[in-house]
User: Fold this.
Amino acid sequence: MSQKDLHAKFQEFPAAVREKVDAALSDAKIALKLKAAEVLADKAEMAEHAVTTAGRIGAKSGEVSELTTILPLKPNGAERLRKFFHLVGGNLAGAGQVGTLHNMRFVFLDNDTKLLFATAFDGEWDPYIDDFATKIPEFMDYLFSNVEGWPGITSPDVKDFIVKHQLPAEAWFVAHPGLTVAEGHRLKRQEAAVQRFLADLN
Assistant:
């Protein structure tokens, strides 16, 4: 599609949408402005993916919230964590015991002096941290004992410590914001049951 065609398509959007896009993206090419206008014009999609607060801190879309921290590591903390991650082949499947955890990742930064911990989870921030403290406390304390100032997952100070290091997302997208971990497991079991039923018919 030519620039002229893109511009013509952009002009088809309501003036209020065009003005909003132009004001925010004055230096962007028309193709990007067109995509932004398409998103803004689709009220149903915007509503489905609305970004709200996860509670104390962080963003939430539908049922799914995000948490990102950058934490200072103790001397040799990265080395100890790498040994553990290598031992388990980078697989943290045991964290599934939390029950609301979609994903989490650990990344070393700044020559192994900092740890980026990022996760997506169902529900609000406070209950999620409580789940870590009640369901996998030993795992959390083993990993985060390599972080400077870690008070312990069951400490009354742990939430303040996490908030101090958390960087809330400025923007957040979830492909299926209404799909919780529990719902995903239910759909997986349902699909397996259907496949067994079909296999038994043959």
The first helix runs from residue 3 to 11.
